[in-house]
Amino acid sequence: MLTYIIRRVLYAIPIILGVNILTALLFFYVNTPDDMARQIIGEKNITPEAIENWKRDHGYNLPLLLNTEEEGLSVVTQTIFFQRSAPLLWLDFGRSDRKNADINNEIRKRMWPSLAIALPIFLIGIFVNLTFAMLVAFFRGTYLDLWGVILCVVMMSVSTLFYIIGGQYVFGRVLKLFPISGYDVGVHAAKFVVLPVVIGIITAVGSGVRFYRTVFLEEIGKDYIRTARAKGLSETKVLFKHGLKNAMIPILTSVVVSIPFLFYGSLLMENFFAVPGLGSFTIEAIQAQDFAIVRSMVYLGSILYIVGLILTDISYTLVDPRIRLE
Amino acid sequence: MPGLVLNKRLYLISALVCTFFLLSGGCTPNNPYRSEERGKNFFYTTFTEEPKTLDPARSYSSDQYALIGQILEPPVQYHYLKRPYTLVPLTTDSVPEVAYYDISGDRLPQDVSPDKVHRAVYEIRIKKGIMYQEHPAFARGPDGEPLYIGITETDIKGIWEIKDFPVTGTRELVSDDYIYQIMRLADPQLHCPILPILEKYILGLEEFSEALKRDLEEIRKARKEKAGAAYSQAIDERKNPIILDYKKHPLPGVEKVDDYTFRVILKKKYPQFVYWLAMPFFSPVPEEAVRFYKQGPMQEKNITIERFPVGTGPYRMETNNPNMEVVLIKNENYHPETYPESGDPPDRDAGLLDDAGKLLPFIEKIIFKLEKEDIPRWNKFLQGYYDNSGITSDSFDQAVTFSVEGRADLTDFIKEKDIRLITSVRPSTFYTGFNMLDPVVGGLGTDKQKLRQAISIALDYEEFIEIFANGRGIPAMNPLPPGIFGYEMEKAGLNPHVYDWDETRGRPVRKSIEEAKRLLEEAGYPGGRDREGKPLVITFDNAWTGPENSPMINWFRKRFKLMGIQLENRTTDYNRFQDKMFKGNFQFFFWGWNADYPDPENFFFLLYGPNGKVNHQGENAVNYENGEFDRLFRKMENMDNTLERMAIIREMTRILQKDAPWVWGYHPVAFVLSHGWVGNLKSNAMANNTMKYIDIDSGTRKDRRYVWNRPNFRPLVIIGIIFIAGSIPTIYTVIRRFRGGRK
Prior knowledge:
The complex is a heterodimer of chains A (326) and B (743).
Chain A: H1 2-30, H2 33-41, H3 48-57, H4 74-77, H5 80-89, H6 103-138, H7 143-157, H8 160-174, H9 190-220, H10 223-230, H11 235-256, H12 267-272, H13 278-287, H14 291-319
Helix pairs in contact in A: 1-5, 1-14, 2-3, 6-7, 6-9, 7-9, 8-9, 9-11, 10-11, 11-14, 13-14
Chain B: H1 2-25, E1 42-47, H2 62-71, E2 76-78, E3 87-89, E4 98-101, E5 107-108, E6 119-125, H3 175-184, H4 195-201, H5 205-227, H6 233-239, E7 254-258, E8 261-266, H7 273-276, H8 287-293, H9 296-300, E9 315-321, E10 325-330, H10 345-349, E11 365-370, H11 374-382, E12 388-390, H12 393-399, E13 400-402, E14 408-410, H13 412-416, E15 419-425, E16 428-434, H14 446-458, H15 461-468, E17 473-475, E18 499-502, E19 507-510, H16 513-522, E20 537-542, H17 550-561, E21 566-571, H18 574-583, E22 588-594, H19 601-604, H20 613-616, H21 627-637, H22 643-659, E23 662-675, E24 678-679, E25 695-696, H23 698-708, H24 714-741
Parallel strand pairs in B: 1-11, 20-21, 20-22
Antiparallel strand pairs in B: 2-3, 4-5, 4-6, 6-8, 7-8, 9-10, 10-11, 12-23, 13-14, 15-23, 16-22, 16-23, 17-23, 18-19, 24-25
Helix pairs in contact in B: 14-16, 21-22
């Protein structure tokens, strides 16, 4: 398996390089350094000279890909692409364009609030979804199944924003049980986490239960389940030992791949609950056109995606003995 | 007694849940603050996004001023209560007086003509004994050397903020600190937004700035040569920031007289300069602080002057976690300053002079909480967790109602909570402008004037304010908002090209759309078509990218259509919009201006020919150029507020109203709500340091928060019971099936 993992990591290098090049080209062609300067300097008294000064001061006065005024290796290194994108390869994200803040430092600080919200939503959400999915699968063909599916579809159809605003209104303003928004550090964070976690779980219940129900129903209808029942196994054994284990393969595909993204946080949830996580960090950067942050987060996202895929592959071997990673 | 039993259980569950929440916020579990903050003399307010910078050389927006205004102290400040806005000393003995000199060095009278002035000298005398806040930059070791200079990453392990440094120090404010800050304004690494303006006035500042630029380039060149191809400016300067030696070059425009006195020498008469002395750009910055912050390990941890400014003001930065909260705490070293003893006549009745003569500041801590969305912010304000709030469109109807006479008042729901409304006209203007260089809408010919006047009539800004600003605005007659010298009310201030005066009702009435159509016909576009019958199409540039703005665009389109003109919308992001403005690639646009200081010059300069954006990169976005207006502007700009200046302003206004380079839009009116426990509140649009005057009745706030936020567990318990009751048959069925149904 180790050989397989090493091979996958090596395969990832050209992908990461490609992502790096593409994001650099995309960002610098779409949003030129002049645009960045105008956005960042401010609204008043912006002169072309001020724009040139800003570019020079931030190293954006260099050519994008090749510096023909330089000689030797500097032709490549003294370019915006190399200076801004090469450090990403060793995860040096540099400083933000707008606020001049160290991005690595910000990511380190902000990933914990994101995790504080995303991890409970993820874990409790899986438990709740699986439980309800097994329940409706168990009662397949009954009214409970029918109304369960209808309820799932209704819940899926409602916008996340509605759950958030409605949740804040009902639990925070009317019942006064939780702070409407905010965050604090350490144990004091607990009271701020409950409401977004509950809403996060409720938001995902509809789609989660439907998906897992489909997976379970597919497994329940297979021959080996019939065989298990025929040889007299109890329903508990049939469902939990045989059914659940085999249903885990498609479930793992969707679950494990999303684990690395827990660091990434939830864009909407963090914004509305004023949680200082990575989700709101990315949203703020997009709104402020701080492309140093956006580029870093896109790049980090691509790395996390690759990590997620490798983790998924590894997890297959744990639940399916037929799969060997070689 | 089953009901009683149920109630007992209900209360038991409630008590258990409440005990859990008690640990975090008392028996008001929705309290977002820690229990130890209860009853404290803290002020709670919000901010919507992290301020871009708090460096006084770069800060230039209201969200930044809300913070640094409490920390930093420029030489003068605006009187908190008096109107019109009046400058009073802050760190100085008196408001600096200017002395004018001719070319031979002889002193000239104050009312001298600007063309005779060779030098204008402001002598600024600061008070003795003003101490800086406690700060590690002032900390010294046993050898007397700065303790935290030359630190390594290991030295500041575990340090994330200024308050984490174990040793701090302080020192007295001296004139060198002000001089150092003026020099910083020219530092090319800081990109001071007002440098181009100051270079025009402060003697030698332009040359000084150029010299610093050369120094910076030389240092970078040397570093690049040393590092070779591997050189990366961004990485290099992050690890080893460049500190320019300002003393290497002369700056004749700033002179030190002694430790408490310095002079600023201007190249020409510029009476408005004294207003700049009330802005954070002219706050003192100690050189030790810059050297302290400009160290690689500090930069890596984001401990910079951009986040932790150092000052002598009533508050100092305790916490700057811009992702969550910014906390300002009372500066223990604050110099004695007292609450004003005089104000406007109504201020005494309003209780605004009750604290006259008392030492400032009153509040122990100001806590700014990050709140990005309007809905949670508004709800928390209503719960008493924020002491003040603006009013968004979503919550406007819940908070404000207008009487038949158009007077804004609070709704009964808000009044019941003892919330007060403070309204004030902002020293700002929103306008729509024509590109005066454009062959269709520009030019000073009579037909072009008539075209623009017709559009000015058609754009019914009374309606616009009603629909899009919830009535929070005053239709503009010229660029000057109320409160600025030169603004005239009622009939005297009427724009006769757009309004008629209704004598019976005593108010202006917009001319009819028929009048607009008549003017359009005279301009050569009868029915919105030119002589060849082609429709008149005008492009409209704006930066209204959000979907919420499409009703505004539609409104403009509809108003133009009334005259038969087609409006072609060209919405772009703000970057592109600015680019179009620079290149003159537009016909008609929407923009705004917020005054730097309360003087008509700061509005009329937006229409001064030599400030044209396309040809001179100035702030005259419409590129308006009228010789007579420019001549009057030059005469008016350097005058004191006299009757003669008023007469010139009237003449300038008359020219502008006739030429109509802008459709004089509206001056926004700010509506701020504040709880009854907040004292000494008076809106001051020019002052940035008003928090020191605010008082809080924290006892009342604590009691009201308790009453307003008692939790209601009953629905939750009932839902729980229903859920459990509903689950029982399901669980029973499952168990039955597992045991006996299927084997």
